[in-house]
Design brief:
The protein has helices spanning 3-6, 18-41, 46-92, 94-107, 112-122, 126-138, 148-171, 177-198, 203-232. By secondary structure, the protein is an all-alpha fold. It has one domain (17-227). Helix 2 runs antiparallel to helix 8 (177-198), helix 2 (18-41) runs parallel beside helix 9 (203-232) and helix 3 (46-92) crosses helix 6.
């Protein structure tokens, strides 16, 4: 059997796009649907609803992108700083680092003599040794750090798409919130089901979970809008 036949294809789980994309589209759907429900509950006209929804879309998309970029960039900088520390330790104390790697392999069940030999072989090349120590000790792959720009653009685009859905019926001329509620509910269920498929969970579970969470948020803000609309009116 060849190496190619033994190779298994795995999906990319470290590229830094899935979490912000999923979070972005869900946040866009829920937050803008809730925002629109609140202003509708308060008695706002269709034109005010459109303006509020588009403003919420723009503000939320830029906020999400900025937050994702900053958080991922900060994590990358922290990882790079720790990797630099590891490189200096290998340069200063290669024997100690070699022993440390051997002990790590021993702790995972490798026979002591074999563990020392493997560590010795790996430490013949400082660059290889540094990459091994980085992965084993820090849990970081120096060749596959998440991209802050990927996270930012994924978050921005997905939030904008999600936030646009509750506004769309009002842009098309519908004045009742019922159409927006139905469209948003369908979108929440579909997106939740798609995420569940990616994570191998039951489709109905993912869809229903997102539908209930998003519906609860919109219901609460609608109630708040109705309460304050009646009070201020």
């Amino acid at each position: 059997m060849s190496v190619g036949e033994l190779h298994k294809h795995h999906r990319d789980v470290t590229g830094g796009w899935l979490r912000p994309a999923v979070f972005g589209v869900m946040d866009g759907l829920v937050s803008n649907a809730a925002l629109i429900a609140g202003v509708v509950g308060g008695g706002a006209s269709a034109s005010v609803v459109v303006m509020t929804g588009l403003a919420g879309l723009a503000a939320g998309a830029f906020s999400m992108a900025t937050g994702e970029y900053t958080s991922v960039r900060s994590q990358d900088e922290l990882s790079q700083a720790e990797m630099a520390v590891e490189r200096r330790e290998i340069d200063r104390s290669p024997e100690a680092e070699e022993r440390e790697l051997a002990l790590l392999y021993e702790s995972r069940g490798v026979e002591p003599g074999l563990a020392r030999e493997v560590a010795h072989q790996l430490h013949r090349n400082r660059e290889v040794a540094w990459r091994i120590h980085t992965r084993e000790e820090l849990g970081v792959d120096p060749d596959d750090l998440p991209s802050p720009w990927t996270a930012a653009f994924s978050s921005f685009g997905s939030f904008a798409v999600g936030a646009f859905i509750p506004v769309l019926p009002f842009l098309l001329g519908f004045s009742s919130i019922l159409v927006a509620v139905v469209l948003t509910a369908v979108a929440l269920f579909v997106v939740g089901a798609l995420v569940a498929r990616l994570t191998t969970r039951p489709l109905w579970y993912g869809g229903l979970r997102q539908l209930l969470l998003g519906g609860a948020a919109a219901a609460v803000t609608y109630g708040i809008g109705t309460l304050f609309g009646a009070t201020l009116g």
